[in-house]
Amino acid sequence: MKSRIFKMMLSIILGTVLIANANLASAASIPWQSYSNNAFTKAKAQNKRVLVYVGSASCHWCAKMNSETFHSPTIIKIISKKFIPVAVDMVSDPSISYKYGVRGTPTFIILDSSNEEISRLVGYQTTSEFQSYLGKS
Fold first, then answer.
1. Do residues 25 and 67 touch, judged by C-beta distance below 8 A?
2. Edge-to-edge order in the sheet of strand 83-89
3. CA distance 3 to 83
4. How many CA within 13 A on the CB side of residue 126?
5. Looking at residue 106, what DSSP letter applies?
6. Helix (H) or strand (E) holding 85
7. CA nearest to 29, candidates 68, 76, 74
8. Half-sphere exposure at residue 14, Cβ-oriented, CA atoms within 13 angstroms
9. pTM
10. CA atoms of 3 and 34, how far apart (whole Å)
11. Which residues contact 9 (CB under 8 A, 6 or more apart)?
């Protein structure tokens, strides 16, 4: 009987630890927001640039970046420190894609707080490639 109770308590403790670790992992992510004037207001107030990520739910390379590149602690740190991150779905919000002349996904556009384009990058980027790009901007 004591063995059964011990095993049950051990399972509860291990389950709690696993859930806590999963929550910590998901807490460390890029705080993407919707495209709005608010992003540019924040950028100006915080002396940051706006990083616009144009993707699509049906884009294989976007999914790969979402599952790999965007989960890198280094990428998360750089984006959080230097940028106001904005995510746009090319299909559900084509007006933003049209506004910036986006023709494919994934596309990354760095804008200043006045909405002037600083740089643009198109296509899948490994963590090291994306880190290099963000570091130059």
1. no
2. 83-89, 49-55, 107-111, 117-122
3. 54
4. 2
5. S
6. strand 83-89
7. 76
8. 6
9. 0.79
10. 53
11. none
For residue 34 the two structure tokens come to: 């919707």
Could you tell me the pLDDT band of residue 9, with boundaries at 50, 70 and 90? very low
Q: Which of 21, 120, 125, 136 is nearest to 70 (CA)?
A: 125
Residue 64 has a pLDDT of 96
**What pLDDT is stored for residue 4 in this prediction?**
54
b/e burial code for range 59-76 (CB count within 10 A of at least 16 → b): beebeebbeebbbbeebb
Pair 35, 43: CB distance under 8 Å: no
> Helix H segments across the chain?
2-27, 37-46, 60-67, 73-82, 94-99, 127-136
Q: Which fold has domain 31-136?
A: Glutaredoxin (3.40.30)
pLDDT digits (tens, 9 = 90+) for 100-114: 999 999 999 999 999
Place of tokens 């495209």: 35
